[in-house]
Design goal:
Layout lengths: L1 E5 L4 H6 L1 H11 L4 E7 L3 H4 L7 E5 L8 H12 L5 E4 L8 H5 L4 E5 L10 E3 L9 H7 L19 H10 L8 E5 L12 H13 L3 E4 L6 H10 L6 E3 L6 H8 L4 E5 L2 H8 L4 E4 L15 E4 L19 H4 L3 H11 L5
Parallel strand pairs: 1-2, 1-4, 2-3, 4-5, 5-6, 7-8, 7-10, 8-9, 10-11, 11-12
Amino acid sequence: MKILIIAPSWVGDMVMSQTLLNELKSKYGDETVIDVLVNSWAKDVVKRMPEVNQVHCNPFAHGELGLLKRFQLGRQLASFAYDQAYVLPNSLKSALVPFFARISERIGFVGEMRYGLLNTAYKLDKNKLPLMIDRFCALANNGQKPVQIDYPNFTADLNNQANVLKSLVLSLEKPVICLCPAAEYGPAKRWPTEHFASLADLLQTAGYQVWVMGSAKDADISAKIMEDAKLKANLYDLCGKTNLVDVIDLLAAAKVVVSNDSGLMHVACAVNVPVIAIYGSSSPGFTPPLSDKAQIIKLDLECSPCFERTCKFNHYDCLQKIIPEQIFNAIIKTSPTTK
């Protein structure tokens, strides 16, 4: 059996998609060949998944139709003679490449009226499949949620970790707490930067070092944390200084990761470190942290979860009212340290 996965575009969804790969291996056997079509930024992340045989890079910009290019890519992939394709995004354009590749069975949810492009198309019942991992794995189980779903699991590359630590002039002499303050979806998912800064002060006073993690796009957020923090001797801004694969290995070095509901939260869970996950406008009922070591911090306010990118009341109480001391106490209970 040869299978092509059309991967999601978000980091967190990419991590969660490993649950489907596990399901396919269980269903068809370890000899099953699974290749993945993925955005170029995520190719090295996918290579950390042992279930993956080969990675094809998706050349399309976000939102680009590129009909001719999709046809050409489909014809190139036809030479691999895949038996099945699983289309994880719900957009119409994401189903075009496997259609043009003439893959005999093309599986996914109906999404944007993809009848014909998909020939095994399930209607999504959000009540029966509330979680993203339920939806992914249902595609390999006749549209039904499997009895058991294994959590994503990434193996850290300790050699790469050592090289990255050296290049960034970091050490592990003090216990590490990683802060992941961004969330690409919008500010209604972001714990306030001033709270992250206050937490960083509390942690440094208690004897921890603090790494602020993220991409170059998150530099403004991390800069505000650095500006607001009163203590900086053991506070390191790593946003934009690493690639996503390096972030995987750095998160694996943490005693605890504090994160918004974001892609890095799912990465941290996959490397099996304790995670404190802060929820605002989103819900752990849909995209929970997939780890037995995760703690969920949220306020069940009347207006949350609202699933909005910004707060329509402009108070962001679901996040503002989660105070730094609450997160600090959770960290201390999880990983106590002495100065």
